[in-house]
């Protein structure tokens, strides 16, 4: 009886906890030859260690952006900004492009084969290709 | 020549800026304006000397000074396409005069010639150290200022010339190799100057996850400008000390600076350390070994840290066989003073508080202990031997 009650409560409340965490997909241009990319490699683009693909960010301060960097790199926003400021202010690299919504991020990635971005999994369509899912 | 180049660069930047100003870079042409700054107050516990950063004319005493650690920088990046961009950076700070002055800290064309190679031409940061490229950007570092022990060993921040950067990722490891060549000129508060003509630097950086290791080697042919060395040499030769005079060469002298740097950002532990050796083919600028280590720990938005650094002279501090008394005692004293470099060690503790995603508060307390001398402070009064305590507090921001 107690087990049944516990299971029932779990079933009711579990979806609520899951709702606070968004599944994120890392996207590239459909013609990009890469079909799968490990997390460490994606992190290299978003922390400025590789510039072969131009990283595209969501809006500064958005929940999705904070969650993406936390999940992918374990870093807080201030740390990520400090890392980018090292690269930008010595002229070693260009700051990531930034768009206000996932729709705009998709458009930007679809328009340029040399970019990489991230959106909610629910926003994924066939204008872009997913190379990694960040749970 | 450089003035014309910079005017042309500025003109181009303005043209692109008027076309379309944005706060991010699209795939197409556009210009981005970014900036950084530090607003900090610095004070010490003594009026017998002034605490300064590299080649500043005036420093901190018991009266709090905002000129030692404050600065403001603004950068314009014009991207024309996926492989060509231009960058210009203006920096305002106090250096060789006790007034805030603006300087062109960066001004270059950047061309990504292939996936792995980037070529830059113009004015760039002199890559002599682990954090030389962004030493002015307080927000990028945990400490209040780049450690004086190591960062005052090469007083030039920028060079005019070209550099080639190779960067490739091998799995989770990124290798960056940078070869730079050009020339540099610096003017100090006492109107003397230093010229690197040429300067050549090779940097190798290996990054893997939380660890960064850097090995750098810089070679220069340098000249000291407008110093009292020509007349000191003349006086020494006139009094039969030609051998001593020959050791005070100041024009077109060969020098090297080699450094090993390490950075670790792992599981809330933050470590940064550098070890550097400076060797010069003259006694007029001293050979030195300098190093520091910083250990910090991130508690959420707070990063307290402890730091220890030291700089010691490797070359001789006295000429043997020069008279200590008699009519030439003054000449001896002048020659010996010319070959003494600053030696000091420093223990510091500090705290960084990331109260905002684009701004951080910093507090740092340094205890600087001179060794056999005045320890690199400015305008030391006779009899000053230190140690001194330096307290600095301020806010670093980027936009």
Please give the structural blueprint.
The complex is a heterodimer of chains A (135) and B (399).
Chain A: H1 2-19, E1 24-28, H2 39-46, E2 54-57, H3 63-73, H4 77-88, E3 97-98, H5 102-111, E4 115-120, E5 129-134
Parallel strand pairs in A: 2-3, 2-4
Antiparallel strand pairs in A: 1-4, 1-5
Chain B: H1 2-19, E1 21-22, E2 30-44, E3 71-79, E4 84-94, E5 100-112, E6 117-125, H2 148-151, E7 158-170, E8 173-187, E9 193-208, E10 211-225, H3 229-238, H4 242-246, E11 253-266, E12 269-280, E13 288-297, E14 302-313, H5 329-338, E15 344-356, E16 359-370, E17 388-398
Parallel strand pairs in B: 1-2
Antiparallel strand pairs in B: 2-3, 2-17, 3-4, 4-5, 5-6, 6-7, 7-8, 8-9, 9-10, 10-11, 11-12, 12-13, 13-14, 14-15, 15-16, 16-17
Characterization of this structure:
The complex is a heterodimer of chains A (about 140) and B (about 400). Chain A is α/β, with parallel strands linked by helices and about 140 residues long. Chain A is about 45% helix and about 15% strand. Chain A has five helices and five strands. In chain A, strands 3-2-4-1-5 form a five-stranded mixed sheet, sandwiched between helices. Chain A is globular and about 65 Å long. Chain A starts with a helix and ends with a strand. Chain B contains five helices and 17 strands. In chain B, a hairpin with a 5-residue loop joins strand 4 and strand 5 (about 100-110). Chain B is globular and about 70 Å long. The model of chain B is unreliable at about 20-25 (pLDDT under 50). At the A-B interface, helix 2, helix 4 and strand 3 of A face strand 2, strand 3, strand 4, strand 5 and strand 6 of B.
């Amino acid at each position: 009886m107690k087990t049944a009650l516990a299971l029932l409560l779990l079933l009711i409340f579990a979806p609520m906890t899951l709702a606070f965490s968004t599944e994120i997909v890392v996207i590239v241009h459909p013609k990009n030859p890469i079909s799968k990319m490990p997390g460490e490699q994606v992190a290299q683009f978003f922390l400025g260690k590789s510039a072969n693909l131009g990283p595209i960010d969501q809006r500064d301060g958005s929940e999705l952006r904070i969650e993406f960097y936390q999940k992918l790199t374990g870093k807080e926003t201030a740390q990520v900004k400090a890392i980018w400021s090292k690269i930008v202010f010595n002229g070693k690299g260009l700051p990531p492009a930034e768009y206000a919504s996932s729709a705009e991020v998709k458009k930007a990635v679809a328009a340029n084969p040399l970019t990489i971005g991230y959106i909610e999994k629910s926003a994924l369509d066939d204008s872009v290709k997913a190379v990694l899912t960040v749970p | 020549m450089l003035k014309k180049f910079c005017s042309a660069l500025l003109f181009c930047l303005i043209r692109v800026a008027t076309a379309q100003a944005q706060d991010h870079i699209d795939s197409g042409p556009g210009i981005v304006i970014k900036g950084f700054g530090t607003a900090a107050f610095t004070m010490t516990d003594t009026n017998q000397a002034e605490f300064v950063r590299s080649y500043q004319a005036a420093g901190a005493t018991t009266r709090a000074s905002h000129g030692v650690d404050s600065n403001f920088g603004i950068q314009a990046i014009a991207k024309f396409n996926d492989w060509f961009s231009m960058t210009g950076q203006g920096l305002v700070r106090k250096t060789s005069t006790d007034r805030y002055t603006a300087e062109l800290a960066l001004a270059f064309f950047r061309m990504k010639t292939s996936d792995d190679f980037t070529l830059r031409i113009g004015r760039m940061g002199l890559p002599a150290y682990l954090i030389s490229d962004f030493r002015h950007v307080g927000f990028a570092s945990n400490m209040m200022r780049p450690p004086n022990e190591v960062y005052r060993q090469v007083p030039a921040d920028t060079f005019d010339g070209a550099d080639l950067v190779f960067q490739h990722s091998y799995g989770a490891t990124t290798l960056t190799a940078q070869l730079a060549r050009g020339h540099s000129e610096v003017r100090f508060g006492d109107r003397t100057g230093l010229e690197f003509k040429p300067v050549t630097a090779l940097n190798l950086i290996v990054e893997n996850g939380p660890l960064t290791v850097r090995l750098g080697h810089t070679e220069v042919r340098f000249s000291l400008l407008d110093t009292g060395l020509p007349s000191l040499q003349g006086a020494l030769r006139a009094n039969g000390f030609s051998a001593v005079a020959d050791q005070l060469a100041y024009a077109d002298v060969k020098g090297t600076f080699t450094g090993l740097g390490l950075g670790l950002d792992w599981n809330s532990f933050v470590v940064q350390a550098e070890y550097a050796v400076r060797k010069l083919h003259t006694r007029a600028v001293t050979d030195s070994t300098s190093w520091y280590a910083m250990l910090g720990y991130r508690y959420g938005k707070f990063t307290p840290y402890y730091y220890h650094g030291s700089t010691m002279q490797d070359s001789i501090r006295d000429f043997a066989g020069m008279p200590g008394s008699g009519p030439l005692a003054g000449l001896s004293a002048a020659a010996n003073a010319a070959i003494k470099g600053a030696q000091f060690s420093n223990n510091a503790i500090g705290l960084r508080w990331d109260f905002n995603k684009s701004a951080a508060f910093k507090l740092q307390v340094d205890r600087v202990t001179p060794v056999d001398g005045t320890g690199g402070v400015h305008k030391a009064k006779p009899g000053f031997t230190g140690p001194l305590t330096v307290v600095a507090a301020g806010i670093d921001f980027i936009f």
